[in-house]
C-alpha cells in the first residue's frame, strides 16, 4: 500500500543543498519539498522558482515548529546544528543532517546526547553508504568475511603444515582520494569556518566507510599531513583490522576520484569511483559489475561502462569544455554517490520499513576517528580513541 509522502523542510539552502538535497527531495515520490529556509533572498527565490518549494522562510524556529513539516534536512554550516537538532527533537521530528556533525567534539557529544535521549530518527549525510556500488561492495565483502566462499584455485602451498596465525583472515581496507584543490570554495581556507580543514570536513566520509566495512571498534590512529592538501592516515581496530587512507588534493578531476579496496579471507572487493565493483577470490560472485552514470551528456562513447567507459566520457567532456570555453562542462557522467538514495532510504527508516541508514552513534565514531587523526598529525604520535 502506498504511503503519503513526507513533508521535508530544508534548513540551509547553500550550494550543496541546491545542487543535491533540494532537487532530490523535490523529485522523489517519497518526499515533498514543503519549506526551504535560508537568509539569502536569491537562494530562496531559486528554491521556489526552480525547485517548486511550497513555502520559503528565514525563520528556522518557525519552520521546525510548523505542524505541517514532518522532517528536517539540515544543511547549514556546522555553526548552526545543535540548536536546530534540539528543537527538532523537542517536536519529535526526524532529522537528516549534513556531515560533519560539528566543529568540536563537545558539540558532537551534545548532539549525540540529544538524539539518543529523544529517540528521533536521525541520519548523517555520509552518502557513500547509499551509493548502489558501495552497497553491493559492502554486501559482497561482509558476506565473504562472515561466510567465506574461497575459490578452489587459491594456492595453499603448505596445506595442513601451514602454521596458524591469529590474524589469518583479518580484514584490511584502503581508501585513496584524488582531489583538485583549485575547485575548493573560499570558506575552506577560513579557520573560523573550517578550523580543521579537510581533515574533518572531508575525512568523516572516509572514516565512516572504513568503520562500516570493517565492523570493528577503532582503537588508535596515526596520521601525517603536509598542510591542507596531503594527508595519510592509518587506523587500527580492536580485532586487528587495519584501514589506510590517502587523501591528496593536488590531483586532477581528469581521473577517478575515489578508490576503495577491501581485503580478507583470501579475497578482494574493489569499488572504483562508485561506477565499477571488481572482485577476486570469491566463488560465485561476478568479477566486474558496472553502474549507471548520472547526467551523461556523451552516451555515444564509453558504452562498456565502468571505469574504462568513464575515462572515455571524461575525455569527451574535457574536449567539450575546451571547445566551448566552459570549464564546468568537464563534469559529465558522474558516479552515483548516493545522495538521492540517502533521503529515500531515510524515509523508509522513518516509516519503520528500512534499516538505520547512518545513525548518530556511527557518525560520532567516524568523527572521533577524524579528530584522532587531526590530533595525531598535530602531535606527531599515535592517538588512542580513548583520548577523544
Word description of this protein:
The structure is a single chain. This protein is of the alpha/beta class. It is built from eleven helices and 15 strands. It has helices at 15-27, 41-49, 60-65, 82-90, 105-118, 132-146, 198-201, 203-214, 306-323, 339-350, 360-379, and strands at residues 6-11, 31-37, 55-57, 71-74, 95-97, 122-124, 172-178, 218-225, 230-237, 242-248, 258-264, 267-272, 276-280, 288-290, 383-384. The chain has a nine-stranded mixed beta sheet with strand order 14-13-12-11-7-10-9-8-15. Strand 12 and strand 13 form a beta hairpin. Helix 1 crosses helix 10 (339-350), helix 4 runs parallel beside helix 5 (105-118) and helix 8 packs across helix 11 (360-379). The model has no long low-confidence stretch (mean pLDDT 96).
Topology of helices and strands:
Elements: E1 6-11, H1 15-27, E2 31-37, H2 41-49, E3 55-57, H3 60-65, E4 71-74, H4 82-90, E5 95-97, H5 105-118, E6 122-124, H6 132-146, E7 172-178, H7 198-201, H8 203-214, E8 218-225, E9 230-237, E10 242-248, E11 258-264, E12 267-272, E13 276-280, E14 288-290, H9 306-323, H10 339-350, H11 360-379, E15 383-384
Helix pairs in contact: 1-10, 4-5, 5-11, 8-11
